[in-house]
Amino acid sequence: MADITVIGGGIAGLSAAITAAERGAGVALLEAHEETGGRARSTDGPYRANLGPHVLYKDGPLWAWLDERGLLPACARPPFSGMRVRWEGELRRTPPLAAVPTVLRLRGRDAPVDRSFREWVADHSDEKTAAMLSAAAGVYTFHHDPGSLSAAFVWPRTVRTLLSPPPTVRYPIGGWSALVATMESRARELGVHVRTGARVTELPDGPVVVATELHEAARLLGDPSVTWTSGRTLCLDLGLRTRRGDPFIVFDLDEAGWVERFTAPDPTLAPDGEELFQAQMPMRPDEDADAAAARLERLLDASVEGWRDRVTWRRRQVMDGRSGALDLPGTTWRDRPAVDRGDGVFLAGDMVAAPGLLSEVAWASGVEAATLATAAVPAGVG
Ligand SMILES: Cc1cc2nc3c(=O)[nH]c(=O)nc-3n(C[C@H](O)[C@H](O)[C@H](O)COP(=O)(O)OP(=O)(O)OC[C@H]3O[C@@H](n4cnc5c(N)ncnc54)[C@H](O)[C@@H]3O)c2cc1C
């Protein structure tokens, strides 16, 4: 018999299971799919495309936690060259210099919670610069209009991910499945009973950590108020025959999309002579996948020469509500669905009340939920 049940084996559930087991609890982790990892899984076969995440942030708490435990997989650094920017319909090799004075003026300032990012930037510069800096945040918000989000949400993340050289992004070699494998092994070593192919339909007796996606957690908790804002984006993974001169990354300052060649840092992701790209375009409200795909293909036409004739593999998916929490003006992470639900039930995942960037939220809430769940184990058990 386990002291604590963890439902869901993504980054949140694995972090929770490891934390609870390290604190001495007996843990059962139940995962609906045949493999753990959730969105952090990569495809099998010659193209190792990640379902969701691509980069770990070396300056963040998830990295430090993995490092302390010897769980970091081998990681690659981003290449030094190959950046492109689409701005006002043109492809450039450098970001528009006009934004530099605004960036310098805003650096070090506390952005307000209750104003939108676009309004706040426009107060300190002009509408055009505000639109450009807003669209740059598409790369980590997956939102069609990042400028409409809280300034306090967007600005620190933009500074951290885009404006703090040298870059702290790292790419797990072989894709995120490599990281999931080290986390699952660690959990098993600690005695966690990992059961895959085990979809939970009702909450077991507590303490229990619900580490599913948020809509599934709302169903299990029987609480439709468990919701939060997230992105809706069209992702196109492409295998392309190699061509010299392909960009590494294209920031789309017109429409908040981006294109990235993941074989630039990690050539193991595709067969020899081929490249693995992912291009993504946040979908507008009421826009269908074909219309967003048409906009995305125009970005590819502008930035990756001859891509249509080089395709060897493709996968298209809409990621709706699956790319992490977004805070609207007037809200912060503290307003998201709480970790402690009462009666020995705890919530973890990338849309709950925990700080951090993208999967760091899943990790932080997993650790918090497991710490509270361990404290809730009745004395004498375990
Ligand atoms: C396109 C895209 C790009 C991203 N890029 C990055 C990035 O570069 N860096 C980064 O840090 N983050 C990134 N993210 C975010 C990252 O993918 C997520 O934050 C993270 O994977 C969420 O982990 P999780 O454990 O909260 O949820 P999930 O990974 O969704 O795990 C939930 C698990 O619960 C299981 N489950 C669901 N229902 C049940 C049930 N009833 N019973 C049992 N099990 C159940 C599911 O099968 C799943 O395995 C990206 C996301 C997307 C979509």
> Biggest sheet: strands, sense, closure?
7 strands, mixed
Task: Give the strand content.
Answer: 15-25%
Uncertain residue segments: none
Q: Between the first and last Cα atoms, what is the distance in angstroms?
A: 9 Å
Helix content: 25-40%
Radius of gyration: 21 Å
Q: What is the count of DSSP helices, taking H or I runs of 4+ residues?
A: 11
Tell me the name of the CATH class of the largest domain: Alpha Beta
The chain-level mean pLDDT equals 96
Named CATH architecture of the largest domain: Alpha-Beta Complex
Total strands: the figure is 16
Counting helices, strands and paired strands, the structural category is alpha/beta
Main sheet: strand order: 6-5-11-12-13-10-14
What is the domain tally? 2
CATH topology call of the largest domain: Polyamine Oxidase, Chain A, domain 2
Give a list of the ligands. Answer: flavin-adenine dinucleotide
Assembly form of the protein: single chain
What is the overall silhouette? globular
Compressed to H and E, one letter per element, the order equals EHEEHEEEHHHHHEHEEHEEEEHEEEH
Secondary structure topology:
Elements (H helix, E strand, L loop, with lengths): L3 E4 L3 H12 L4 E4 L25 E2 L3 H8 L6 E2 L6 E5 L2 E3 L7 H7 L10 H8 L2 H10 L1 H4 L9 H12 L6 E4 L4 H13 L3 E3 L12 E3 L3 H8 L8 E12 L7 E4 L5 E4 L12 E9 L6 H15 L7 E15 L14 E3 L2 E3 L11 H17 L7
Parallel strand pairs: 1-2, 1-9, 2-8, 5-11, 9-16
Antiparallel strand pairs: 3-7, 4-7, 5-6, 10-13, 10-14, 11-12, 12-13, 15-16
Helix pairs in contact: 1-8, 1-11, 4-5, 4-7
This protein binds flavin-adenine dinucleotide (FAD).
The site of flavin-adenine dinucleotide has 34 residues, from helix 1, strand 14 and helix 11.
